[in-house]
Amino acid sequence: MACFPSPETQFLLPRLILNIADSDAKLIAAYRQRRRQHGQAYFRDRHPCLSFAKQNLTCAPPQFDQSQGETGDGVLQHPPNFMKHWLRHFMRVQIMSGIVTVLLIALWPVSSHGISLLFDRHTAQEAAARAARRNPDRRAPFPATIRGPQSAMKTAVLPAKALIQAPLISQLPALYNGCEVTSLAMLLQFEHINVTNLTLAKQINRDPTPLVTSADGDIISWGNPNTGFVGSISGREPGYGVYHGPIAALLNRYLPGQALDLTGSSLATILATVASGRPVIVWTTINFQPVSDWITWQSPTGPVRATMTEHAVLLVGYDNTDVYVNDPLTGELNQVSQSAFRTSWIDLGRQAVTVAPQPQTAN
Predict the structure, then answer these.
(1) Domain CATH code at residue 125
(2) Can you list the positions of beta strands (E) in the chain?
(3) Could you tell me if residue 6 is inside a domain?
(4) Does residue 327 have a pLDDT over 50?
(5) Are residues 249 and 224 in the same domain?
(6) Reported confidence tier of residue 27, pLDDT bands at 50, 70, 90
(7) Residue 122 maps to a domain
(8) How far is CA 143 from CA 296, 299, 306, 350, in A?
(9) Cβ neighbours of 191 (radius 10 Å)
(10) pLDDT in tens, 187-205
(11) Is residue 96 located within the same domain as residue 136?
C-alpha cells in the first residue's frame, strides 16, 4: 500500500521553504537599508579589506592577539560583525536544508509499486532471504524451449503500439498468493468464459509436498511449481506459486485444445501475440525488477530454483518504450518500462501462456 503524508504534515515542507526564503529577503532588505542610511563608509569601517579606487584606500592587515603563546596562534581582536552575521545565517540555512531533506525522504509518497515491498510470502519468504545469500548460482531456472507455433508471428510486421481491453481482477484479499489463477481468470473472462479466480484456485493442480526448513529457517525441501501449486494459495500458510505447465493444463479444461504455451519465445513473439488481439499470461517479479534473491530447494522431482518475488500478470498492451499489464496484485492496469519487464520476464524463464488463434470460418 502507498504511504502518504498526514493532513497535519503535508503542508510542512512548503512552510519551511517559504520561511527560509523570507529570512533571506529580510537580510537583503536590511543590508540595502543600512547601505542607504550610512553610505559606503558604514561598510568600509566594518570591512578593512574593502578597497575603493576613488579614495585610494588600502587594506590594513588584521591585528591578532598574541596572548595565546609563542606559536602565534592568536585570535582577531575585532572580528567583523558583518561576517559573523552572515556566517550565522549560512549555518541556519544549512540546518534548515538538512531538515527539509530528511522530511522529504520520510514523507514523500511511496510509488505504486511500493506495495510490492510490503508484500511478503510469510515465513517462507523470510527463509528465502537467508537462503539466497547461500545460493549465488545464477543459471537459468527454466529450459528455453518454444512450445507453440510461431512461423506466422515471425514474418508479421509488429505495430508500433497495441492495447487490449481485458477484465481487471484483484487477487486480494482472498488469494494472497494467487496471482497466476487470477491472471488466468482475466484471460478466460476475456474469452467470454464466466469463471472466477476463486473457482480456478480450487481447480489448479497442487503439489502437496510439505515445507521443510532448517533450524535457521532456510528452505530445505518443498513442492515443484512445474507440477502444481506449491504451498497455500490463500496465504494462511506459507505459499509460493505455480508455473506455466499447470496453468496451460487448466486453460485447456475450459478451452479444450486451445491453450498455447509460448514459454521460451522471444519478447517480439509475445508482443506480436498481443498485437493480434490476444492477451498473454506472463511470469515476472512483483516489482518488475531483475531477480536478486534466487534460492534452491529439493522437491520430489528434483531441485527447484526459485525467487520469492515471483509474480504473474496479464500482458495486454505495449508501445515503443513500455508494456501494459493487468496486475492482479493491484487490480489495475499498470504501465511498466519495456526494458525492465523484459529483464524480469527472462529471469523467470520466458514463461507465457495464451489462447491459440482460431481459424477463420467462411460465411
Answers:
(1) 3.90.70.10
(2) 64-65, 75-76, 162-163, 206-207, 212-213, 219-221, 229-230, 259-261, 280-285, 295-299, 302-306, 310-318, 322-327, 332-337, 352-355
(3) no
(4) yes
(5) yes
(6) low
(7) yes
(8) 16, 17, 14, 9
(9) 16
(10) 999 999 999 999 999 999 9
(11) no
Q: Is the residue at 123 inside a domain? A: yes
Contact between residue 17 and residue 96 where contact means Cβ atoms under 8 Å apart:
no
- Per-residue pLDDT band for 91 (boundaries 50, 70, 90) equals confident
How sure is the predictor about 107, in pLDDT bands with cuts at 50, 70 and 90?
low
Q: Does 226 share its domain with 81?
A: no
Determine the Cα–Cα distance for residues 35 and 38; give it in Å rounded to an integer: 6
The Cα 8–Cα 16 span in angstroms is 14
Instruction: Name the amino acid, one letter, at 189.
Output: Q
Domain shared by 180 and 234, yes or no:
yes
Q: Provide the domain limits for residue 44.
A: 12-65+73-107
Q: What is the residue whose three cell numbers read 537599508? A: 33
Q: Which residues contact 207 (CB under 8 A, 6 or more apart)?
A: 223, 224, 225, 227, 228, 229, 230, 299, 300
